[in-house]
Design a protein that fits this description.
The chain has a single domain (9-175), classed as Rossmann fold (3-Layer(aba) Sandwich), CATH 3.40.50.2020. Helix content is 33%, strand content 28%. It has helices at residues 9-26, 40-50, 95-98, 116-135, 163-167, 191-200; strands spanning 4-6, 31-36, 60-70, 81-88, 104-112, 144-153, 171-177, 181-183. The strands form two sheets. A six-stranded mixed sheet has the order 4-3-2-5-6-7. Strands 1-8 form a two-stranded parallel sheet. β6 (144-153), α5 (163-167) and β7 (171-177) form a beta-alpha-beta unit. The longest helix has 20 residues, at 116-135. The protein is globular. It starts with a strand and ends with a helix. 30% of the residues are buried. The structure holds guanosine-5'-monophosphate. It comes from Elaphomyces granulatus.
Length: 203
């Protein structure tokens, strides 16, 4: 397998389509949280396949996370390693976080590489929604989190997801790949060349 593979919009559309049935069966999401920027397009496509006649469109909220290497120089208390920062988050004090309470929330990203991002997103959202439930006296309502990614790289993961999520089938990857670099169409500056390279790629 080459160390770089190219994926087209059409392939991504179809990956969302084939995943939708399983997601509807196992998750029945009523809200999606797209991790920007890679989760936006898959979340939007998936929404079309999750729509059921007579039911409203599933709303999509966006969060932004960024990875950085902490060298442990500025704060000796902090362990060196890959860290995550929030560049965009849901507002705890407004309706944004309260909106998650009691829902089946599907977190969408394009790729699960080291799993650092997903671990952060799931654990922080769980923590914040718990706090919002406590503040609003709505602790009895059950909020569940699930994950959908287009590609999961088959490699040792640095991040962990709750076993309650993985055991219950609430983690879904459309494709499990080897540890290759995946080039997504929304990153392309020349989409025709990207699509040409995709014809030579396999995944
Ligand atoms: P993580 O290592 O936390 O699972 O992934 C962090 C982020 O790195 C992903 O959300 C994605 O933006 C980026 N990333 C990781 N692997 C790939 C890849 O193969 N292709 C692209 N385009 N981005 C990747």
């Amino acid at each position: 397998m080459p160390d770089k593979v190219y994926v087209t919009y059409n392939q991504i559309h179809k990956l969302c389509q084939v995943s939708a049935d399983k997601i509807l069966k196992d998750v029945r999401p009523n809200l999606m949280i797209a991790i920007g920027g890679g989760g936006y397009v898959p979340a939007r496509i998936l929404r079309s396949f999750l729509k059921r006649p007579g039911e409203p469109n599933i709303p999509i909220q966006a969060i932004g996370l960024s990875l950085y290497e902490n060298l442990g120089r500025s704060d000796p208390e902090e362990q060196p390693g890959t860290k995550v920062t929030r560049t965009q988050w849901l507002d705890l004090s407004s309706l944004e976080m309260a909106n998650l309470i009691g829902k089946n929330v599907l977190i969408v990203d394009e790729v699960d590489d080291t799993r650092t991002t997903l671990e952060y997103a799931v654990s922080e959202l769980e923590k914040d929604v718990k706090l919002a439930q406590k503040n609003l006296g709505r602790e009895a309502e059950k909020t569940t989190f699930s994950v959908f990614v287009l590609h999961n790289k088959d490699k040792p993961k640095k991040g962990k997801l709750p076993e309650t999520m993985t055991d219950a089938g609430r983690y879904h990857a459309a494709v499990t790949t080897q540890d290759v670099w995946i080039c997504y169409p929304w990153e392309a500056t020349d989409i025709d060349e990207h699509d040409r390279l995709a014809q030579e790629s396999y995944i």
